[in-house]
Design a protein that fits this description.
Layout lengths: L10 E3 L2 H9 L11 H11 L5 H15 L1 H12 L10 H9 L3 H19 L6 E5 L2 E5 L6 E5 L8 H14 L3 E5 L10 H10 L3 E3 L3 H10 L9 E3 L4 H10 L4 E2 L8 E6 L2 E7 L1
Parallel strand pairs: 1-9, 4-5, 4-7, 5-6, 7-8
Antiparallel strand pairs: 2-3, 9-10
Length: about 270
């Protein structure tokens, strides 16, 4: 599910101690309350009211059992796009890159170069040594294939793609596959496609939401199964990553983003994001 979003509230806090408490608290990852728009879409698709976890469970299990057929079904239901082949041809990446203005192209290139330079310093290599006990050491091997989920439905995040795909390539991962939801025009954002080209991504699929995570985790007729899934997403993406963990490795389950407004007598308003 990628076209809908949950509602976001902004909390105003006037007391510093209360602000410290809210910013430092730790809690579980419960089933969030869906917005009225999201709930209406859930009723339309499933014929009943379901929580986010149940929606994700049904989508993930359906994609696992029925592959591309289920991916097409949920892409049509949630993103309102009919797609026979979700893979984005490389010509579209190149057209996106060539269509950028010079400043944006330079920004993407600079970001890729700097992220790559940083992560090259983190590279670990295999090593071996001997002692009276014999030979010992550590073998370091890159994963064969990783999947990068890149948000891109209502807003495009090329930086998210760069910060996940580039380290994978630096590590020596053989194949990096990107899944990004189609936008309002039915296509993956040109910014994401351009970033994919600059980052050395191997394949891009126009799939979003829980169905994309499931496709990467279990593989379909057209989407290859990956060894690890990286990247952020909305609550449905996060819950899907949680559900497929074990069948595939994941980077983390990112918590919900919160914005708190802290005000005092000495300033009109101070914005603190957590």
């Amino acid at each position: 599910m990628s076209a809908t979003t949950t509602s976001v509230s902004i909390k105003r806090i006037d007391d510093l101690d209360e602000a410290r408490h809210d910013l430092s608290r730790r809690g579980g990852y419960g089933d969030p309350e869906l917005s009225s728009g999201a709930m209406a879409l859930v009723r339309e698709v499933f014929g009943e009211e379901l929580g986010a976890s149940e929606v994700v469970a049904r989508v993930v299990d359906d994609v696992r059992d029925h592959g591309d057929e289920a991916v097409r079904k949920y892409t049509r239901a949630f993103d309102h796009r009919d797609v026979e082949n979700a893979e984005v041809p490389r010509a579209a990446w190149e057209a996106a890159w060539n269509g950028l203005d010079d400043a944006t192209r330079d920004a993407i290139t600079t970001a890729v170069d700097r992220v790559a330079a940083f992560h090259r310093e983190q590279l670990r290599t295999s090593w071996f040594s001997t002692s009276d006990l014999g030979l010992y050491g550590q073998v370091v091997r890159p994963l064969e294939r990783v999947g990068v989920y890149t948000p891109g439905g209502q807003a495009a995040y090329p930086s998210s793609l760069i910060m996940t795909a580039v380290p994978a390539k630096v590590a020596g991962v053989e194949e990096v596959i990107v899944a990004a939801p189609p936008g309002g025009d039915g296509d993956v954002s040109p910014l994401i496609l351009a970033a994919a080209l600059a980052a050395g991504v191997d394949r891009v699929f126009a799939i979003g939401g829980a169905q994309a995570v499931a496709a990467l985790a279990y593989g379909t007729e057209t989407v290859p199964r990956v060894d690890k899934i990286l990247g952020p997403g909305n609550i449905f993406v996060a819950l899907a990553k949680q559900r497929v963990f074990g069948a595939v490795a994941i980077d983390q389950i990112a918590g919900p983003t919160e914005t708190l407004l802290i005000a005092d007598d000495s300033a009109d308003l101070t914005l603190v994001a957590a």
